[in-house]
Amino acid sequence: MDTVIAMILPVLTALITNNLVKMIYSIIPIGEKKIGISDYKPSPHRPDDALYVQHGKLNTDMYKNLPRGLTVFEIDDNKYLLQGVRKFGYIDDPYKWNDDPIKTVYFLTKENGEAFHVSAFSHEGELFVAVGSKNVHGVVRWNHFMEDLDNYKDTRYEFFKELATTLYGILTSKHVNTFDFLNYLVENGCTAVAESCAIQRQHLVKYKKDSLRFFALTSPYQTGLTYINPLESYKLFRSFGLDVVERIEVADISDEVRLDELNESFQTEENSEGAVVYCANENGDIVWMYKHKNNDYVFRRAIREKMRAKATVSQIIERINKLHFVHPKKDELLSYYLRFYAWVTMTDLGISWDEVFSQWCSLEERFAQISVEDKEKCFEEFMDKPIGKPTIMLMSPCPGIGKTSIGFILAILLGY
Fold it and tell me: Distance between CA 6 and CA 2 in Å, rounded?
């Protein structure tokens, strides 16, 4: 693995010099060792797509050397690597490993949570487990798992510690073949990639319990975008007793009827974000991945983001009218979510505005229990109330000219 790391580090250094990549370095005491942790991520100064795609062309140095989640752990003079999957976009985006003809297509449920990675390695006979999300990872000794988590004091490691604690609970449960799983990661230099679906961090898809839903294996030794194909990963994770994504479907690229059926199925099913589509060449290597989003999800996400920004009703309607498709239940859904917006805005829910969006599904369940009459009353009051981000008006004329009086009159007229 040291050879692979030695190959990618000069490329990453050049990307850092060009302000395309940022590296955050920490030294964490673990037992008697001090472990160096280098987290690499896209530069925060520009949107990710503007870093990976420049002038309409894919930056292959970024794409092939900076997965979504890349960390180098250094113990003594040894280096160990954790890596997520490569960045992917929509079907028309240029994120491809190469242009090989496609033979087989895999549709996997795109779970609606947070990125999760776990890897493992052995150092001087001791088993280490590395865990994290997109941009922040840490490592602990398996036999001192929870004890070692206490050494991560910086606030940037809070989510890592939350994810690690979740993983430890899963791996110490009776139904998981823990050491078969961890030994597989060690022997193959693999990172297992999952989605962390937590009730306390809700997005738009409702989950009944907290879970890590595994879907891919990566390795520095892979010949495509994944170490093995998605169906093999799916079966392997299940053999370890781990949770997997909700659905996996396979089709030959020549079977147009089957492909159309799968596109339609993932696009229209309820309580779903859609699918990630993995495309394999004739050798079975995954050379292309893209998102295939669910219509309900796209519609609800557009409204949710406008609500987060405290947009006006007209701004929300305008956003929906600009979607790339017309939802067959557009009027019904729009009416529902405008009333939901009114309710969360006008009701004292006992939570902050940010928490509304991490408890979205639970709030929708509460909203469903309210009578139609109360929903309409709330909506009418909401429509009479100025909404959106407040406008700040600055007046700086001479003393005594009437600033207070004018301000008072404007407040009455504008409803503030």
Answer: 6
Over 90: is that where the pLDDT of 395 sits?
no
Q: What backbone torsions phi and psi does residue 339 show, to the nearest 5 degrees?
A: -75, -35
Three-state DSSP class for residue 307: helix
pLDDT at 4: 86
Confidence of residue 9 (pLDDT cuts 50, 70, 90): very high
Distance CA 155, CA 332 (A): 43
Q: Quick one: average pLDDT of 69-82?
A: 96
Residue-level length of the chain:
416
Residue type, 52: Y
Whole-angstrom distance between the N-terminal and C-terminal Cα of the chain?
Answer: 63
Give the integer Cα–Cα distance in Å for 196 and 167: 10
- Is this structure's pTM higher than 0.85? yes
> Rounded to the nearest 10 degrees, how much is the dihedral formed by the CA atoms of 403, 409, 415, 416?
30
Give me the phi and psi of 279, to 5 degrees please.
-115, 125
Rounded Cα–Cα distance for residues 286 and 276 (Å): 12
Q: What is the DSSP letter of 200?
A: G
Burial letters 126-148, b for 16+ CB under 10 A, else e: ebbbbbbbbbbbbbbbbeebeeb
Owner of token pair 């892979």: 222
**All residues at 6 or more sequence positions from 358 whose CB lies less than 8 Å from its CB, including other chains:** 200, 201, 202
The single-letter code of the amino acid at 106 is: Y
φ, ψ of residue 164 to 5 degrees: the values are -65, -40
DSSP 122: E
| SS3 category, 395 | coil
Q: Shortest CA distance to 264 belongs to which of 256, 72, 149, 104?
A: 256
* Widest distance between CA atoms in the chain: 82
- Look at the block and give the residue holding tokens 């390795």: 219
Q: Judge contact between 204 and 361, C-beta under 8 A.
A: yes
How do residues 276-301 score in pLDDT, each as one tens digit?
Answer: 999 999 999 999 999 999 999 999 99
Residue 258 makes CB contacts below 8 A (sequence gap 6+) with 251, 252
What is the average per-residue pLDDT within 16-40? 97
**Per-residue pLDDT tens for 210-234?**
999 999 999 999 999 999 999 999 9
